[in-house]
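Predict structure. Input: DUF3844 domain-containing protein, 463 residues.
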Amino acid sequence: MHHNYQHCPSDQALTQASDLAVVAAAADRSAAPHNNKPEKAPATLHLSHSPEGTIKMWEQKKAASSSAKDGAAASLYIHPSQSVGRDVREVSWVDAASVVENAVAASAGLPHVLTEQKPDLLESTVKELDIDLLGKPAANLWIVVEDYPESEPILAKDAAYRVRGGQDSASDLLKFGARTADAIAAADPSAWPIVISSEKSLAGHGPAPRVFVGPQDVKVTSSRRLPADMKRTIQEIADTTYTDMEGHAAEKFGKRAKPLSSHISADAQLMGELEFSTSLLTAVDTQRILNPVNPKPLPTFLSMTFSGLRSLREHYGEDSKQYRSGTAMTRAAVDEIVKTFVDMHEGEAVVQVLTVPPSISAALFRRASSATTTSACPTSVVDCQSTFSNCSNHGTCTQRNVTASQQCYLCTCSTKWTDDNGKAVAGFSGPVIWTGSSCQYQDISVPFHILFWTTVALIIVTM
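Output follows.
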Protein backbone atom coordinates (compact mmCIF):
# COMPACT_ATOMS: atom_id res chain seq x y z
CA MET A 1 0.00 0.00 0.00
CA HIS A 2 1.51 3.30 -1.05
CA HIS A 3 0.75 6.52 0.78
CA ASN A 4 0.83 9.84 -1.03
CA TYR A 5 1.95 12.69 1.17
CA GLN A 6 1.33 16.05 -0.46
CA HIS A 7 1.47 19.48 1.02
CA CYS A 8 2.17 22.51 -1.15
CA PRO A 9 2.83 25.65 0.93
CA SER A 10 1.83 28.96 -0.58
CA ASP A 11 4.36 31.43 -2.01
CA GLN A 12 3.71 33.70 0.95
CA ALA A 13 4.45 30.91 3.41
CA LEU A 14 7.62 29.99 1.55
CA THR A 15 8.76 33.58 1.67
CA GLN A 16 8.23 33.65 5.41
CA ALA A 17 10.44 30.56 5.71
CA SER A 18 13.14 31.72 3.33
CA ASP A 19 15.85 31.11 5.90
CA LEU A 20 17.02 27.68 4.71
CA ALA A 21 18.58 27.02 8.09
CA VAL A 22 15.12 26.44 9.48
CA VAL A 23 14.44 23.65 7.03
CA ALA A 24 17.92 22.18 7.41
CA ALA A 25 17.70 22.14 11.19
CA ALA A 26 14.29 20.53 11.11
CA ALA A 27 15.30 17.92 8.54
CA ASP A 28 18.49 17.05 10.44
CA ARG A 29 16.50 16.65 13.62
CA SER A 30 14.30 13.93 12.16
CA ALA A 31 17.37 11.78 11.61
CA ALA A 32 19.14 12.62 14.87
CA PRO A 33 19.48 9.82 17.44
CA HIS A 34 17.56 10.38 20.64
CA ASN A 35 20.70 10.21 22.72
CA ASN A 36 22.38 13.03 20.80
CA LYS A 37 21.34 16.50 21.72
CA PRO A 38 21.37 18.75 18.62
CA GLU A 39 21.92 22.43 18.85
CA LYS A 40 18.85 24.40 19.76
CA ALA A 41 17.17 26.40 17.06
CA PRO A 42 17.18 30.20 17.35
CA ALA A 43 14.85 31.53 19.99
CA THR A 44 12.64 33.11 17.36
CA LEU A 45 11.67 29.64 16.19
CA HIS A 46 10.68 28.26 19.57
CA LEU A 47 7.06 27.33 20.01
CA SER A 48 5.35 30.00 22.05
CA HIS A 49 1.86 30.61 23.35
CA SER A 50 -0.43 31.83 20.61
CA PRO A 51 -3.04 34.55 21.18
CA GLU A 52 -6.54 33.30 21.80
CA GLY A 53 -8.23 32.22 18.63
CA THR A 54 -5.12 31.49 16.54
CA ILE A 55 -5.53 27.74 16.76
CA LYS A 56 -7.46 26.60 13.75
CA MET A 57 -10.62 24.78 14.78
CA TRP A 58 -11.91 22.16 12.42
CA GLU A 59 -15.66 21.72 12.12
CA GLN A 60 -17.50 18.83 13.66
CA LYS A 61 -18.48 16.16 11.22
CA LYS A 62 -21.83 17.24 9.74
CA ALA A 63 -22.72 13.64 9.13
CA ALA A 64 -22.70 12.86 12.86
CA SER A 65 -26.18 12.41 14.18
CA SER A 66 -27.52 14.40 17.12
CA SER A 67 -27.67 11.23 19.17
CA ALA A 68 -23.96 10.61 18.56
CA LYS A 69 -23.12 14.15 19.66
CA ASP A 70 -25.20 13.83 22.81
CA GLY A 71 -23.93 10.34 23.68
CA ALA A 72 -20.86 9.26 25.61
CA ALA A 73 -17.46 10.36 24.37
CA ALA A 74 -13.90 9.30 25.00
CA SER A 75 -11.56 11.95 26.38
CA LEU A 76 -8.11 12.74 24.99
CA TYR A 77 -5.56 14.62 27.10
CA ILE A 78 -2.29 16.09 25.80
CA HIS A 79 0.61 17.28 27.98
CA PRO A 80 2.21 19.78 27.78
CA SER A 81 -0.54 21.70 26.03
CA GLN A 82 -1.22 25.31 25.18
CA SER A 83 -4.98 24.74 25.24
CA VAL A 84 -5.41 24.72 29.03
CA GLY A 85 -8.42 26.89 29.79
CA ARG A 86 -9.77 26.74 26.25
CA ASP A 87 -13.00 25.04 25.30
CA VAL A 88 -12.81 21.30 24.76
CA ARG A 89 -12.87 20.44 21.06
CA GLU A 90 -15.01 17.74 19.47
CA VAL A 91 -13.27 15.39 17.03
CA SER A 92 -14.05 12.14 15.27
CA TRP A 93 -12.17 8.93 16.03
CA VAL A 94 -10.35 9.23 12.70
CA ASP A 95 -9.20 12.79 13.37
CA ALA A 96 -8.24 11.95 16.96
CA ALA A 97 -5.96 9.21 15.63
CA SER A 98 -4.35 11.77 13.31
CA VAL A 99 -3.84 14.20 16.19
CA VAL A 100 -2.11 11.52 18.26
CA GLU A 101 0.07 10.41 15.33
CA ASN A 102 1.09 13.97 14.50
CA ALA A 103 1.98 14.70 18.12
CA VAL A 104 4.40 11.76 18.19
CA ALA A 105 5.76 12.44 14.70
CA ALA A 106 6.45 16.13 15.36
CA SER A 107 7.71 15.88 18.94
CA ALA A 108 9.88 12.77 18.57
CA GLY A 109 11.11 13.35 15.02
CA LEU A 110 9.41 10.21 13.72
CA PRO A 111 7.38 11.06 10.60
CA HIS A 112 7.34 7.40 9.59
CA VAL A 113 4.74 6.63 12.28
CA LEU A 114 2.14 8.54 10.23
CA THR A 115 -0.29 6.41 8.26
CA GLU A 116 -1.74 9.46 6.54
CA GLN A 117 -0.83 13.13 6.41
CA LYS A 118 -3.54 15.71 7.13
CA PRO A 119 -1.97 19.20 6.95
CA ASP A 120 -4.79 20.89 8.88
CA LEU A 121 -4.49 18.47 11.78
CA LEU A 122 -0.70 18.70 11.70
CA GLU A 123 -0.99 22.47 12.03
CA SER A 124 -3.47 22.26 14.91
CA THR A 125 -1.36 19.66 16.71
CA VAL A 126 1.87 21.63 16.34
CA LYS A 127 0.15 24.67 17.82
CA GLU A 128 -1.30 22.51 20.59
CA LEU A 129 2.05 21.23 21.89
CA ASP A 130 3.84 23.45 24.38
CA ILE A 131 7.39 22.26 23.65
CA ASP A 132 10.35 23.23 21.48
CA LEU A 133 9.70 21.16 18.37
CA LEU A 134 13.03 22.08 16.78
CA GLY A 135 15.11 21.04 19.77
CA LYS A 136 15.91 17.64 21.20
CA PRO A 137 13.48 14.87 20.16
CA ALA A 138 10.96 14.35 22.92
CA ALA A 139 10.09 11.04 24.54
CA ASN A 140 6.46 9.93 24.21
CA LEU A 141 4.07 8.22 26.61
CA TRP A 142 0.71 6.89 25.36
CA ILE A 143 -1.89 5.68 27.88
CA VAL A 144 -5.32 4.13 27.29
CA VAL A 145 -7.64 3.61 30.26
CA GLU A 146 -10.64 1.37 29.60
CA ASP A 147 -13.95 1.93 31.40
CA TYR A 148 -12.96 5.20 33.05
CA PRO A 149 -15.90 7.48 34.04
CA GLU A 150 -16.45 10.26 31.53
CA SER A 151 -17.38 12.74 34.26
CA GLU A 152 -14.06 12.49 36.12
CA PRO A 153 -10.90 14.10 34.65
CA ILE A 154 -7.97 11.72 34.89
CA LEU A 155 -5.35 14.47 34.82
CA ALA A 156 -5.28 17.75 36.69
CA LYS A 157 -6.55 19.61 33.62
CA ASP A 158 -9.54 19.26 31.37
CA ALA A 159 -9.36 17.04 28.32
CA ALA A 160 -8.24 18.76 25.13
CA TYR A 161 -10.62 16.72 22.97
CA ARG A 162 -13.88 14.80 23.22
CA VAL A 163 -13.84 11.91 20.77
CA ARG A 164 -17.17 10.87 19.24
CA GLY A 165 -18.58 9.43 16.06
CA GLY A 166 -18.86 6.09 14.33
CA GLN A 167 -17.41 3.41 16.55
CA ASP A 168 -16.28 1.35 13.56
CA SER A 169 -13.45 3.87 13.04
CA ALA A 170 -12.13 3.69 16.63
CA SER A 171 -9.81 0.75 16.03
CA ASP A 172 -6.84 2.79 14.74
CA LEU A 173 -6.78 4.97 17.85
CA LEU A 174 -7.25 2.10 20.32
CA LYS A 175 -4.39 0.16 18.72
CA PHE A 176 -2.19 3.22 18.22
CA GLY A 177 0.33 2.31 20.93
CA ALA A 178 1.19 -1.18 19.69
CA ARG A 179 1.12 -0.14 16.03
CA THR A 180 3.42 2.83 16.61
CA ALA A 181 5.82 0.83 18.77
CA ASP A 182 6.08 -1.77 16.01
CA ALA A 183 6.65 0.92 13.36
CA ILE A 184 9.47 2.41 15.43
CA ALA A 185 11.02 -1.01 16.04
CA ALA A 186 10.75 -2.01 12.38
CA ALA A 187 12.43 1.18 11.18
CA ASP A 188 15.27 1.13 13.73
CA PRO A 189 16.79 -2.22 14.80
CA SER A 190 18.36 -0.55 17.85
CA ALA A 191 15.08 0.95 19.12
CA TRP A 192 13.20 -0.67 21.99
CA PRO A 193 9.76 0.92 22.41
CA ILE A 194 7.77 -0.89 25.10
CA VAL A 195 4.10 -1.90 25.08
CA ILE A 196 2.58 -2.65 28.51
CA SER A 197 -0.96 -4.01 28.63
CA SER A 198 -3.22 -6.67 30.05
CA GLU A 199 -3.66 -10.04 28.41
CA LYS A 200 -7.12 -8.91 27.26
CA SER A 201 -5.76 -5.94 25.35
CA LEU A 202 -5.28 -5.35 21.63
CA ALA A 203 -1.46 -5.35 21.83
CA GLY A 204 -1.05 -8.59 19.89
CA HIS A 205 2.39 -9.61 18.63
CA GLY A 206 5.09 -7.62 16.85
CA PRO A 207 8.76 -6.64 16.84
CA ALA A 208 8.40 -4.21 19.76
CA PRO A 209 8.79 -5.69 23.28
CA ARG A 210 5.46 -6.47 24.96
CA VAL A 211 4.78 -6.81 28.67
CA PHE A 212 1.45 -8.51 29.44
CA VAL A 213 0.29 -7.96 33.02
CA GLY A 214 -2.32 -10.42 34.27
CA PRO A 215 -3.97 -11.08 37.63
CA GLN A 216 -1.31 -13.65 38.57
CA ASP A 217 1.84 -13.04 36.55
CA VAL A 218 3.73 -10.92 34.02
CA LYS A 219 4.75 -12.23 30.59
CA VAL A 220 7.30 -10.57 28.30
CA THR A 221 7.68 -11.11 24.54
CA SER A 222 10.32 -9.86 22.05
CA SER A 223 12.53 -9.03 25.03
CA ARG A 224 15.75 -9.53 23.05
CA ARG A 225 15.53 -5.88 21.98
CA LEU A 226 15.60 -4.63 25.54
CA PRO A 227 18.88 -3.42 27.08
CA ALA A 228 20.17 -5.85 29.71
CA ASP A 229 19.53 -3.39 32.54
CA MET A 230 15.94 -2.78 31.45
CA LYS A 231 15.28 -6.50 31.02
CA ARG A 232 16.60 -7.15 34.51
CA THR A 233 14.54 -4.31 36.01
CA ILE A 234 11.34 -5.58 34.38
CA GLN A 235 11.97 -9.06 35.74
CA GLU A 236 12.67 -7.77 39.25
CA ILE A 237 9.47 -5.70 39.29
CA ALA A 238 7.49 -8.64 37.89
CA ASP A 239 8.83 -10.92 40.64
CA THR A 240 7.63 -8.59 43.40
CA THR A 241 4.33 -7.36 41.89
CA TYR A 242 2.26 -10.25 43.25
CA THR A 243 3.91 -10.42 46.67
CA ASP A 244 1.70 -8.83 49.32
CA MET A 245 -0.45 -7.05 46.72
CA GLU A 246 -2.85 -5.67 49.28
CA GLY A 247 0.01 -4.29 51.35
CA HIS A 248 1.56 -2.61 48.33
CA ALA A 249 -1.80 -1.16 47.29
CA ALA A 250 -2.51 0.16 50.79
CA GLU A 251 0.93 1.77 50.95
CA LYS A 252 0.51 3.43 47.57
CA PHE A 253 -3.19 4.28 47.54
CA GLY A 254 -4.18 4.34 51.21
CA LYS A 255 -7.81 3.69 52.16
CA ARG A 256 -8.84 3.73 48.51
CA ALA A 257 -7.44 0.21 48.13
CA LYS A 258 -9.31 -1.28 51.12
CA PRO A 259 -12.36 -2.66 49.20
CA LEU A 260 -10.14 -4.78 46.91
CA SER A 261 -8.89 -8.30 47.57
CA SER A 262 -5.90 -9.90 45.87
CA HIS A 263 -7.70 -13.27 46.06
CA ILE A 264 -10.29 -12.14 43.49
CA SER A 265 -9.07 -12.17 39.89
CA ALA A 266 -10.79 -8.92 38.87
CA ASP A 267 -9.26 -7.07 41.83
CA ALA A 268 -5.83 -8.61 41.25
CA GLN A 269 -5.89 -7.49 37.60
CA LEU A 270 -6.22 -3.84 38.55
CA MET A 271 -3.82 -4.02 41.49
CA GLY A 272 -1.26 -5.90 39.40
CA GLU A 273 -1.21 -3.52 36.44
CA LEU A 274 -1.07 -0.41 38.63
CA GLU A 275 1.63 -1.84 40.90
CA PHE A 276 3.80 -3.07 38.02
CA SER A 277 3.55 0.10 35.91
CA THR A 278 4.16 2.62 38.70
CA SER A 279 6.96 0.55 40.23
CA LEU A 280 8.71 0.06 36.88
CA LEU A 281 8.86 3.77 36.11
CA THR A 282 9.90 4.62 39.66
CA ALA A 283 12.73 2.07 39.46
CA VAL A 284 13.97 3.38 36.10
CA ASP A 285 13.85 6.98 37.31
CA THR A 286 15.66 6.07 40.53
CA GLN A 287 18.43 4.39 38.53
CA ARG A 288 18.75 7.56 36.47
CA ILE A 289 19.12 9.71 39.57
CA LEU A 290 21.66 7.37 41.19
CA ASN A 291 23.81 7.11 38.04
CA PRO A 292 24.21 10.67 36.70
CA VAL A 293 27.72 10.00 35.37
CA ASN A 294 26.92 6.73 33.61
CA PRO A 295 23.16 6.94 32.95
CA LYS A 296 21.24 3.88 31.79
CA PRO A 297 19.22 4.08 28.55
CA LEU A 298 15.67 5.31 29.01
CA PRO A 299 12.50 4.27 27.16
CA THR A 300 11.67 6.94 24.58
CA PHE A 301 8.31 5.49 23.51
CA LEU A 302 6.12 3.77 26.06
CA SER A 303 2.54 2.57 25.54
CA MET A 304 0.31 1.51 28.44
CA THR A 305 -3.23 0.12 28.38
CA PHE A 306 -5.09 -0.35 31.66
CA SER A 307 -7.94 -2.87 31.65
CA GLY A 308 -8.41 -3.28 35.40
CA LEU A 309 -11.45 -1.02 35.63
CA ARG A 310 -13.17 -3.11 32.97
CA SER A 311 -12.53 -6.22 35.06
CA LEU A 312 -13.98 -4.55 38.16
CA ARG A 313 -17.04 -3.23 36.33
CA GLU A 314 -17.79 -6.61 34.76
CA HIS A 315 -17.40 -8.39 38.11
CA TYR A 316 -19.04 -5.95 40.54
CA GLY A 317 -20.96 -3.38 38.48
CA GLU A 318 -20.43 0.29 37.77
CA ASP A 319 -22.06 1.44 41.03
CA SER A 320 -19.97 -0.82 43.27
CA LYS A 321 -17.52 0.43 45.87
CA GLN A 322 -14.83 -1.71 44.23
CA TYR A 323 -15.25 0.08 40.89
CA ARG A 324 -15.27 3.50 42.56
CA SER A 325 -12.15 2.63 44.53
CA GLY A 326 -10.48 1.29 41.41
CA THR A 327 -11.28 4.53 39.59
CA ALA A 328 -9.60 6.60 42.30
CA MET A 329 -6.58 4.28 42.35
CA THR A 330 -6.22 4.40 38.57
CA ARG A 331 -6.41 8.19 38.54
CA ALA A 332 -3.68 8.41 41.20
CA ALA A 333 -1.50 5.88 39.37
CA VAL A 334 -1.79 7.64 36.00
CA ASP A 335 -0.91 10.96 37.64
CA GLU A 336 2.18 9.37 39.22
CA ILE A 337 3.20 7.67 35.96
CA VAL A 338 2.89 10.89 33.96
CA LYS A 339 4.93 12.92 36.45
CA THR A 340 7.63 10.25 36.70
CA PHE A 341 7.94 9.89 32.92
CA VAL A 342 8.21 13.66 32.43
CA ASP A 343 10.78 13.97 35.24
CA MET A 344 12.72 11.01 33.86
CA HIS A 345 13.18 12.87 30.58
CA GLU A 346 13.79 16.23 32.29
CA GLY A 347 10.62 17.75 30.90
CA GLU A 348 11.32 16.86 27.27
CA ALA A 349 8.38 14.51 26.92
CA VAL A 350 4.90 14.44 25.43
CA VAL A 351 2.13 12.52 27.18
CA GLN A 352 -1.22 11.60 25.63
CA VAL A 353 -3.95 9.87 27.63
CA LEU A 354 -7.18 8.42 26.21
CA THR A 355 -9.98 7.44 28.59
CA VAL A 356 -12.93 5.41 27.29
CA PRO A 357 -16.17 5.49 29.37
CA PRO A 358 -17.96 2.26 30.34
CA SER A 359 -21.01 2.97 28.17
CA ILE A 360 -19.01 2.57 24.96
CA SER A 361 -15.89 0.71 26.10
CA ALA A 362 -17.13 -2.85 25.65
CA ALA A 363 -18.46 -2.27 22.13
CA LEU A 364 -15.36 -0.36 21.02
CA PHE A 365 -12.83 -2.90 22.21
CA ARG A 366 -14.92 -5.81 20.94
CA ARG A 367 -15.03 -4.28 17.45
CA ALA A 368 -11.37 -3.37 17.53
CA SER A 369 -10.49 -6.88 18.66
CA SER A 370 -12.49 -8.48 15.84
CA ALA A 371 -10.85 -6.15 13.33
CA THR A 372 -7.29 -6.79 14.42
CA THR A 373 -4.98 -9.35 12.91
CA THR A 374 -1.91 -8.50 14.96
CA SER A 375 -3.11 -10.68 17.83
CA ALA A 376 -3.19 -13.77 15.61
CA CYS A 377 -0.58 -16.49 15.98
CA PRO A 378 -0.60 -18.58 12.79
CA THR A 379 0.99 -22.00 13.22
CA SER A 380 1.93 -22.56 9.57
CA VAL A 381 3.06 -20.65 6.51
CA VAL A 382 -0.33 -21.20 4.87
CA ASP A 383 -2.21 -19.83 7.89
CA CYS A 384 0.13 -16.85 8.04
CA GLN A 385 -0.40 -16.06 4.36
CA SER A 386 -4.15 -16.23 4.85
CA THR A 387 -4.18 -14.19 8.07
CA PHE A 388 -1.83 -11.46 6.87
CA SER A 389 -2.92 -11.26 3.21
CA ASN A 390 0.29 -12.89 2.00
CA CYS A 391 2.20 -10.10 3.76
CA SER A 392 0.74 -7.69 1.16
CA ASN A 393 3.28 -9.17 -1.28
CA HIS A 394 5.97 -7.12 0.48
CA GLY A 395 7.38 -9.90 2.67
CA THR A 396 7.39 -13.57 3.58
CA CYS A 397 6.00 -15.64 6.45
CA THR A 398 8.70 -16.87 8.81
CA GLN A 399 8.60 -18.66 12.14
CA ARG A 400 9.40 -16.60 15.25
CA ASN A 401 9.57 -17.20 18.97
CA VAL A 402 7.01 -14.79 20.46
CA THR A 403 7.45 -16.26 23.95
CA ALA A 404 9.76 -18.86 25.43
CA SER A 405 7.15 -21.54 24.73
CA GLN A 406 5.19 -20.18 21.76
CA GLN A 407 6.13 -19.94 18.10
CA CYS A 408 4.15 -18.12 15.42
CA TYR A 409 4.50 -17.58 11.70
CA LEU A 410 4.62 -13.81 11.16
CA CYS A 411 5.53 -11.51 8.30
CA THR A 412 9.16 -10.60 7.72
CA CYS A 413 9.02 -7.55 5.49
CA SER A 414 11.30 -7.13 2.50
CA THR A 415 13.47 -4.15 1.60
CA LYS A 416 12.66 -4.16 -2.11
CA TRP A 417 10.58 -1.69 -4.10
CA THR A 418 7.49 -3.70 -5.07
CA ASP A 419 3.89 -2.87 -5.78
CA ASP A 420 0.96 -4.49 -3.98
CA ASN A 421 1.13 -7.39 -6.44
CA GLY A 422 4.73 -8.13 -5.49
CA LYS A 423 6.16 -6.90 -8.79
CA ALA A 424 9.27 -4.71 -8.92
CA VAL A 425 8.54 -1.01 -9.38
CA ALA A 426 10.27 0.27 -12.51
CA GLY A 427 12.74 3.09 -11.95
CA PHE A 428 13.16 2.44 -8.22
CA SER A 429 16.16 0.67 -6.73
CA GLY A 430 17.88 0.53 -3.39
CA PRO A 431 16.40 -0.36 -0.02
CA VAL A 432 12.95 0.57 1.22
CA ILE A 433 11.32 -0.28 4.53
CA TRP A 434 7.96 -2.04 4.64
CA THR A 435 6.31 -2.23 8.05
CA GLY A 436 3.07 -3.25 9.74
CA SER A 437 1.83 -6.70 10.73
CA SER A 438 1.06 -7.41 7.06
CA CYS A 439 3.93 -5.31 5.63
CA GLN A 440 1.14 -3.01 4.50
CA TYR A 441 2.89 0.30 5.24
CA GLN A 442 5.85 1.78 3.41
CA ASP A 443 8.29 3.70 5.57
CA ILE A 444 8.51 7.37 4.75
CA SER A 445 11.37 8.30 2.45
CA VAL A 446 13.93 11.04 3.06
CA PRO A 447 12.08 13.48 0.73
CA PHE A 448 8.98 13.17 2.87
CA HIS A 449 11.01 13.76 6.03
CA ILE A 450 12.23 17.00 4.51
CA LEU A 451 8.73 17.96 3.39
CA PHE A 452 7.27 17.11 6.80
CA TRP A 453 9.79 19.20 8.70
CA THR A 454 9.53 22.03 6.19
CA THR A 455 5.80 22.09 6.92
CA VAL A 456 6.42 22.07 10.68
CA ALA A 457 8.95 24.89 10.36
CA LEU A 458 6.54 26.96 8.28
CA ILE A 459 3.83 26.52 10.89
CA ILE A 460 6.14 27.58 13.73
CA VAL A 461 7.58 30.68 12.08
CA THR A 462 4.10 31.92 11.16
CA MET A 463 2.69 31.52 14.67
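The chain has two domains: 77-371, 381-436.
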